[in-house]
TrEMBL record:
Family designation: Belongs to the bacterial solute-binding protein 1 family.
Highest rank taxon of the organism: Bacteria
This protein's name: N-acetylglucosamine/diacetylchitobiose ABC transporter substrate-binding protein
Keyword presence, Transport: yes
Lineage, uppermost ranks: Bacteria, Bacillati, Actinomycetota, Actinomycetes, Kitasatosporales
Gene designation per UniProt: ngcE
Amino acid sequence: MGSTSVNRRDVMKRATAAGLFAVPAIGALTSCASSGGGDEKAEKGKKSKKNPLAVKEDAPLQVYIFKGGYEDKYARFVTDMYEKRYPESKPDQKSTEKISTLVRPRLVKGDPPDLVNNSGDDNMDIGKLVKNKQVADLTELLDAPSWDDPSVTVRDTLIPGMEDMGRFGTDGCYQLNISATVYGNWYSAKMLEETLEAEYPRTWDEMLALCKKAKAKGIHGWAYPGGHPRYMLFSMYAMFAQAGGRKAIEAMDNLEPNAWTSDAVKSVFEAWEEVVAKKYVLGGFDSQQAHVEMQTAWTKGKAVFVPDGSWVENEAKDTTPKGFRMAVGATPSLDKGDAMPFGTLYSPPGEPFVVPAKAKNVQGGMEWMRMFYSKESTRNFFKEVSAIPAVKGAIDGMDLPPGVESSQRAIKAAGKNIVIAFFREWYPELFEQDFNGAMRTFMTGESSVKETMKAMQKGADRVAKNPDIQKIKKS
């Protein structure tokens, strides 16, 4: 198909339970869209009010769940719901950290599972799956009546922007997420207030001063996972937007020639270069479990901040001491000339699911997702993993743990100033390989700001010039 992009419509607005944020439309490439119903092997039942997706009630269902920070108990709850509704289906749930290793060969063979939680380091390239028509169009699911209220569609129960995240340059929707992820600077409110007697830094000068104060007490300002250096971008991305505005991050998504060498990007890297040079960063976590090692050091009080996502509250629960009061802060402003204000937040939908197009039970895969988006399931999801579900008002009135409560406050404070790194979804290899390598040498002080920006731009240019990679363009 090559490199193709066509603007589809004006910029859309996306909201989450407590705030709004802008999401761009993406190009309509109708030639890439699949029919959305799998193929002739897919089993269908009789459509009815009780069975709006025409699930074949005795058709087996197989679900693959990524067993990462969210574990898999939340998914088992839904699988049990499915079995209760369709007892003859005998649903089979499998959990693994190796999604691509186990699932991709089955996609190629034409015998895939019926639903895949395509997450983790070993996830499948969703852009390639869409281009090769290996995943089903989920528009039928979005148009279906919601589990709790037949008068409301599934689409209308979800936080806006979910459908756009799953388009990948097509008219259909090929991926749906289950949570709202908040990225930023995670910290212990107890440490900040009691140990350091400080407030959360709103400017970079205040951040440097806090790191200096922490160092005097034998505490690093930051910890980062050397095995996964790209985690640093979880804290840096909103800073790019603050410094250069939405145009700066749109340039990144659009693979523009100077996206990673702009003055805005330079100012952010220069700010972090000072943190590295003054040895405020605790490193040395170089294994594949580097993120867990980093988080453990952090919960033990060895560092003030970690670059992370809102899954950390659940993932680090076993090492988090009582009274830690986990919280997330937006990235501090660089100076008064920033294009976007303090509070700008990187918060996209998270934890993606796909239904393979050649699955034998495509309808069952979509039905599982319809069940997940029910009030009963999303509230259980929250109880199990302390993550914000991607369903409007799902956790209203519930008691919230510190991290989730802090995330909700950050979302509300950000309002319209929430940004999404679409390039992570569109070009995962770029993020996970090129940018990972560039961030590794930067965080160890082996490469300068100029060299780091050049390396990241080189990676973006490589993707832009590759005719085999589908290009998606923001409008």
